[in-house]
Design goal:
268 residues; elongated
């Protein structure tokens, strides 16, 4: 005779309900999981864990960034060429005057067009965002400020000559009238290279890498002679460091030796 206990199972045996549960688990263990069934539906992953959509977006960002270089390079080239032609006009004979005057007018009009193109392109890159577009803004900002140094060197010579004219009574009128005009033209040329710095600072502030006060300080600095170049260099170095810090992976949480993690310990 088999003696049964109060839990309705033989001594030395196993509860039928437990046995049924074990059989059900073993049956489901041989079924394919949802991850395996939907493997064909998941995005294709690269060896570094980047999806195909992410790689496509990166490729589009790089193409757009390459085209964005046209506006700043053309703006710098047009103004520097204007300065070179003006110097040649000052030292060449009279036969070069007509051709140089026409060429200077063309270059000046082209620089105005490339200025508006720079404004539109920099705003577009700042609004779209992305690591590649942000890096393009940073590099284009430094390019425009350093690339315009030859033009402003020529402008400094013009300002010095006008100041000398103002010392002579016969030429004072030319000097005092020419100084404000030359200063206004130089300031407009300086502001023409500032949209890239302003857009880059705005993008950093939008990404939470700099504060709104620092962004405003960079914008104000771009309105001042000489300070704008120093500000562009500082923002380039600082922005590159902030970008690298933002793209670096966060360090893993450390588990104390001999015990669980703080959240596990509190949960227990």
């Amino acid at each position: 005779m088999i003696v049964r206990s109060n839990d309705n199972r033989p001594h030395g045996g196993e509860n039928p309900r437990h046995l049924e549960e074990r059989c059900r688990r073993a049956k489901h263990a041989h079924k394919p999981t949802r991850a395996l069934r939907t493997h064909a539906e998941t995005p294709m992953m690269s060896p570094i864990g980047q999806t195909f959509a992410e790689r496509k977006d990166d490729s589009m960002q790089k193409k757009a960034s390459s085209l964005a270089w046209i506006a700043p390079i053309a703006y710098v080239a047009s103004l520097d060429s204007f300065a070179i032609v003006a110097v040649m006009l000052a030292i060449a004979d009279d036969g070069f005057y007509d051709a140089a005057d026409t060429l200077m007018n063309v270059l000046w009009r082209l620089s105005v067009g490339f200025f508006f193109a720079s404004v539109v392109t920099s705003i577009w890159l700042a609004v779209r965002g992305g690591a590649a577009r942000r890096a393009t803004l940073r590099r284009a900002a430094l390019l425009t400020k350093l690339g315009l140094i030859p033009f402003f060197a020529f402008g400094a010579l013009v300002m010095a000559a006008l100041m000398m004219f103002s010392l002579f009574p016969a030429l004072a009128f030319i000097g005092w009238i020419g100084l404000p005009v030359a200063g206004a033209i130089g300031w407009l040329a300086m502001v023409g290279g500032s949209p890239w710095v302003i857009a880059y600072a705005a993008r950093l502030q939008s990404d939470g890498l700099i504060s709104a006060g620092e962004c405003a300080l960079h914008i104000i600095s771009q309105m001042l002679f000489f300070i704008d170049v120093a500000d562009a260099i500082i923002l380039f170095v600082r922005g590159r460091r902030l970008e690298r810090r933002a793209q670096s992976p966060a360090p893993p949480a450390l588990t104390p030796a001999g015990g669980p993690a703080p959240e596990d310990a509190s949960a227990s």
